[in-house]
Amino acid sequence: MAAASIKSNNNKISLAMERTGQWVFSQDIPTDVVVEVGEVGFNLHKFMLVAKSNYVRKLILESKVPDLARIDLSDIPGGVEIFEKAAKFCYGVNFEITVHNVAALRCAADYLQMTDKYSDGNLAGRTEDFLTQAALTSLSGAVVVLKSCEDLLPVAEDLKIVQRSVDVATVKACNEANFPSRSPPNWWTEELSILPMPFFEKIIQAMKSRGAKPLTLATAIITYAERSLASLSPQHLSSAPLRQQSSNPAHKQLVESIVKLLPPDKTALPINFLCRLLRTGTLLRASPGSKAELEKRVSAVMEHATVDDLLVLSFTSDGESLLDLESVRRVVSGFVEKEKSVAVFNAGDFEEVCSAAMQRVAKTVDAYLGEVATCGELSISKFNGIANLVPKAARKVDDDLYRGIDIYLKAHPNLDEIEREKVCSAMDPLKLSYEARVHASQNKRLPLQITLHALYYDELKLRSGSDLGHNTTKDAPTTRAQVQADVSLIKENEDLRAELLRMKMLVTEVHQGKNQQGSSSSATKGGGGGPRRSTFFSSVSKKLGKLNPFKNGSKDTSSIEDVVDITKPRKRRFSIS
Predict the structure, then answer these.
(1) Backbone angles phi, psi at 427, to 5 degrees
(2) How far is CA 410 from CA 376, 438, 476, 506, in A?
(3) Bridge partners of 311?
(4) What is the DSSP string of 349-403?
(5) What is the reported pTM?
(6) Cα distance between residue 74 and residue 258, in whole Å
(7) What is the pLDDT of residues 82-130, one digit of tens each?
(8) Full strand arrangement of the beta sheet holding 33-37
């Protein structure tokens, strides 16, 4: 790569010297000075340069060397190519002034002091005429001139070339935004998008000062951002290279500068663009202030968000691992807080009635949870943290949330009963549709409590004789209380059944011991009558008494003789009543 660059520079030097020789060596008088510009030396005549350049004249006159043979002009704006054109001008050789080189020629003329005051019709006057009459008469010309000033600072600013170009570009852009002169109407945004950020920022600020509409500014900023950040988008780079580029301050500064340029109206920008910009800022580790501003703007238009918009924030570029759930949580939380403020202002009850926008966001969040639930690294607390942000009243039915919960339980099969209950805590089983309740009642992944909720709901419907679509808010507390009691009772039954099975096995072992011991067993029965010892059966009886849910309505049986009925216990039946 370095060898190729050196070879390219040598070719440029050789071409420059060859071209110079064509119009310098044609003179009858031999050259008497070598002008060095970087690595290139130009063999020229002093008198030809002095005739147009007051700066060269001063160098020769003020030189302490009697016969100055070398002059170093490596600091000339524009470098070798521009000096070559300035030298041609001194020799009266024609060359073309264009929008691409006029700014550099104007700066070089100022550096060499080639002004009309020193010599009539000099290079400074010629370039000024071209700027005024040609380059700065159109948007395209002004933008090209402004872009060429990037490597000419601060001279181009001192000569007001930058400001003049910005002024022309601003006026032309505002006119095109209000009265398009060509198709497509937003062609002017493409023109501005080629500029470096500092110049683009100057134009946007100038358009704001002229009263440009927020939508006009937003259109220009979106086009500029998409073009500038195209190489950093997920479609072009995987997440690994992108993380490596996060240390590049230029990319990070670009995103932060774009955020500062966003119009005050938070609804002027589409949420898709804001989410992509926020994602890029996250990957490039933009400043907390820039991220917070973008999150506020996403919250302001959250009702227009789609699942894909939220997923853009969540996953790495390869879509394999989670990137930033906290941004999603803050965005949703910000929207909910805004809705609460509106409800309070309107003297409404946010817990009972939610706006249509809040209901749309609830459906989006539930669908989003279904998409991210498959990630093994998604913890229960993070899953519930987002699900619980949505007010209960915003969900008319919890089917979408149930789908997300079911996907999460399926993707995390090693959760115990308590953990599964935590996952399901954000869902109200009584707000499931009939189809979802049927599915839930047969879903072995769900905890027992949720399954019973689904079963009791339809039982209550049948008992009340009401239609399945009717609101059962009044029955909900009774159902929940009944479910809680029965879940507890079922767990106690399980413990009781295990204890009885254990007791039956031990009784069987006792009978087998009687048959084997024979006479030794009889001798034991005829033995002395010491104090009666506590037997296994009495201890079991006490434990069963503690497990018995109805013990408060029974008598104490701890003093009753150990008489055990080993017949199979009847199964307990539960009634809805």
Answers:
(1) -100, 145
(2) 10, 18, 28, 40
(3) none
(4) -TTT---HHHHHHHHHHHHHHHHHTT-TT--HHHHHHHHTTS-GGG-S--HHHHH
(5) 0.73
(6) 36
(7) 999 999 999 998 999 999 999 999 999 999 999 999 999 999 999 999 9
(8) 40-44, 33-37, 70-72
Report whether 349 contacts 392 (CB < 8 A).
no
Distance, in Å, from the CA atom of 455 to the CA atom of 437, rounded to the nearest integer, reads 8
Q: Which helix (H) or strand (E) holds 157?
A: helix 155-158
Are 359 and 380 spatial neighbours (Cβ–Cβ below 8 Å)? no
Question: Where would I find the H helices in 229-349?
Answer: 239-245, 249-261, 271-283, 288-300, 307-314, 325-345
Peptide bond between residue 241 and the one before it cis (omega within 30 degrees of 0): no
Write out the two tokens for 211.
């009263």
Q: Encoding tokens for residue 44? A: 């020229």
The helix/strand count (H/E) of the chain reads as 27, 3
The rounded distance, in Å, linking the Cα atoms of 122 and 236 is: 50
Instruction: Give 118-174 pLDDT, tens digit per residue.
Output: 999 999 999 999 999 999 999 999 999 999 999 999 999 999 999 999 999 999 999
Record the tokens describing residue 169, joined without a space.
Answer: 């570009």
Backbone angles phi, psi at 148, to 5 degrees: -70, -15
Phi, psi of 143 (to 5 degrees): -65, -40
